[in-house]
Structures are given as C-alpha cells and as structure tokens.
Amino acid sequence: MNFTFHRFDSIDSTNIEALKQARLGAGEGLCVVARQQTAGRGRQGRTWTSPTDAGLYLSVVLRPTFEVKDVPLITLAAAVAVFDTLAELGATPDIKWPNDVLINDKKVCGILAETAETDQGFAVILGIGINVTSDSYPPELAGTATSVEDELGRPVTSSEVEPRLLTQFDEWYGRLCTEDGPTSIIDDWSNRSSYSHGKQVRVALSSEAITGTTDGIEPNGALRIRRSNGSIIAVQAGDVERLRPTE
Ligand code: BTN
C-alpha cells in the first residue's frame, strides 16, 4: 500500500478527518495522523483521551475489494499488526477480543474501524490509538491502562512507533487481501491472543451479559463462548472482561 500522509498538530478526530477525505474521494493508504485529538472516538460511543504527543493517533483509509463478510477481519489484522509492532519494540503483548491490545493485562491500544459508502465505493476507516506515554490516559485508568513507555521502562515517542506500525499493518492487511487471508488471519490472531481459547470471561452485550469460556473465533471474526450448560454462543460485538478464579 502506498501511504500518503495528512498530519495535524491538533484535530477533532483522525477518524472523522479520514472519513471526510474518503467522502472526498481519498484512495486506499491515505493516513491521517495527529499529535493531539480534541474529540478522539472510542468504541461504542466512548471518547478516546488524546493529549498532545502522549499517544499515536492515526487513521487509514482502506478500500477493500474482498467480500463484505470478511470486513470485520480488518480489525483482527490491525490488532495482529499492533501486537507485532509492540513485540518488535521489546514488549510482551496480548490481544483481547476483538481489538484491544494489552500488555500485562492492561490496555495499551484501541482500534476503531468505521465504514462508509462514498461516491468512489465502499471505504473502511481504520483508526488506531496507542498509548505511548503515561500522559495518554487519565490517572483514574491507571489500574486498567498502560503505555508503551511504562512497559518498556525507557522513553518512547510516537515517531518511533508509527513507521513500525505502518509497515506491520501493510504486511498483515496485504495478507488479509490474499485468497487464504481470511482463514489465516484468524489463526494468526488466535496464536497471539490468550483470549482465543479457554479464558473465563463475562461479555457485556447490548441488552445482557453472558459468562462462559472462550472457544475460538468464527470465520467471520465472532468470538465463540461456551456456556456452563455446554451451549455455544457466537458474539459479534461486545465488551469482554476476564473473570478471575475468585469471581
Ligand atoms: C477503543 O475504544 O478501544 C478504540 C479507540 C480508537 C482510538 C483511535 S485514536 C485514532 C483514531 N481516531 C479516533 O477518533 N479514534 C481512533
């Protein structure tokens, strides 16, 4: 993929800007990067705190030509790319379904994919936020969030992380676009995630919460949960929380 960059010191949200550019006809590879976001978007309508130079905030315009049913796998490919970037930097990451990247059980990265129909066809805006320094998340989240700098124990900047991430993403998205890509990305994701099999979890769905043990990923990226009565539920969207043995 040929990346072209639109860089901002401050912007509302790189996803909003990339979406705007996609509607104006931007092709695959347009990458919006900001030093600060004033209205960073998280999953499920949440906000993503984005102070200046504390995190990597970027969004890439994609124009996938593979089957629509495989579009949810883009976030899995992105999570694998973030995992490999952090591993390359010396961390020991994990992936929590569908797309939170963790280090030592704390969230270090969030991924938000949004879709749009534009005059030039279907587009996916892939937004990635990585906590680079501990200023990137509010102190009250210190129990559940971490940063690359905290985990590596040395100063780290976004400019160290960004090129590695884009190289990894280019590779993994490229693989997803091949004939066997969709099946192989599920294996690649599963091999990196302690959440893919055998993890006791509670999943908050829109109207209820279910508990059970994770039992692999469906071909469309849904998480399979085995309940205590043996039934299997495939979860398409929800917040997964790990249950510790005492819970
Ligand atoms: C999540 O809730 O875990 C997803 C967070 C995604 C945040 C990134 S930061 C860059 C891009 N722009 C946004 O407004 N959101 C994403």
How would you describe the overall organization of this protein?
- By secondary structure, this protein is an alpha+beta fold.
- It contains five helices and twelve strands.
- It has helices at residues 14-23, 73-88, 148-152, 158-176, 181-192; strands at 4-11, 30-37, 55-62, 93-96, 100-103, 106-118, 121-131, 197-204, 209-217, 223-226, 232-235, 239-242.
- Strands 1-2-3-7-6-5-4 form a seven-stranded mixed sheet, sandwiched between helices. It has a five-stranded antiparallel sheet with strand order 11-10-9-8-12, with no helix packed on it.
- Strand 6 (106-118) and strand 7 form a beta hairpin.
- Helix 2 (73-88) packs across helix 5 (181-192).
- The radius of gyration is 17 Å and the shape is globular.
- The N and C termini lie far apart (46 Å).
- The structure holds biotin (BTN).
- Residues 13-15, 37, 40-43, 46, 48, 57-59, 100, 110-112, 127-129 line the site of biotin (BTN).
Layout of strands and helices, then pairs:
Blueprint (H helix, E strand, L loop, with lengths): L3 E8 L2 H10 L6 E8 L17 E8 L10 H16 L4 E4 L3 E4 L2 E13 L2 E11 L16 H5 L5 H19 L4 H12 L4 E8 L4 E9 L5 E4 L5 E4 L3 E4 L5
Parallel strand pairs: 1-2
Antiparallel strand pairs: 2-3, 3-7, 4-5, 5-6, 6-7, 8-9, 8-12, 9-10, 10-11
Helix pairs in contact: 2-4, 2-5, 4-5
The site of biotin has 20 residues, from α1, β3, β6 and β7.
